[in-house]
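TA notes. Do not distribute before section.
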Amino acid sequence: MRQLEAWWAYASKCAQLPANVPACDLFWNAIAIISATILALAALYIARAMLRRILAARAEIARAAERVRVADADTMARYKADIDRLHAGVAEEKIEERIRQALNGRKAEGRPGASRDPEARG
């Protein structure tokens, strides 16, 4: 408690004296550091708030651009492919047979990516 009273007396004396008194250099340096810290924290808070608003605005612009680029849900549902209907009548054996025929056709044509020798693949 005495230490706090001594610091208070020192600060009170230095606040009344001119700033160029050598005995009060520590007090005025401490005041300058504290003031600079408070100003820096205030500037950081303001810059952070501004940056947050700018980023939120950019994100909203990006979301709006994406909404314009992609059709709405009703339009997407209207043009959605009915995959079940496309493959409803095709049995698995037919699919396997169609794949074999396509591969044989590729082999016969000599198209790139189709190996003539099945053993050469593995």
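Switch to the second chain here.
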Amino acid sequence: MPSLATLMTCLAFAAPQGPGAALSAAVAVRGDTGLSPAEAYASANARVEDHVREQWQQRASRLAEQRLPFWVPSLTVEQSLRRWLADLPVTELVDCVDREDRERVHEFGNSYQTTLWVAEDPQASQRSERQLRDELRRVERRTAVRFGGVAAGWLSLAVLIAWLDRLSRGYMSGRLRLLGVCAGVALPAFAILL
């Protein structure tokens, strides 16, 4: 049984100074009740992973809002952050500092529940934040390249439509302009979804 001082230390949270500031104290994460100790421990581990992913998703969203310019589409940012979070090494980001197993006796048998006390690993947290910043820079560069491609596509489309209009001697001007407008509208959507 941990002492009162240990429990109070584990319950205390340090106020984060920024989006990447690590918590200096442990956080209690309680798993679901299981019919075996292994099942209870697996549930607590799954809850720890969910907790860490949720924390990093909030950090990533805040960092993206702060660092990315307004012209980067939110759909592109969300897709990129979703991929980055899926590859996040959750087990390396936290250390389990304590474990509490509770056994309850029922008339049908025993049930078990595990609580894990976890604290962020500062070095792993800094490494992951650097990777996140790199990913956000890549998103910004890719978006700028795509927008440049859209502008070049529009210019090429305008030259092509003008050349075909001149070639047809104005016979299909209306149809060519309609085709150019449709292609011009579809080009940015295609570039963003690519």
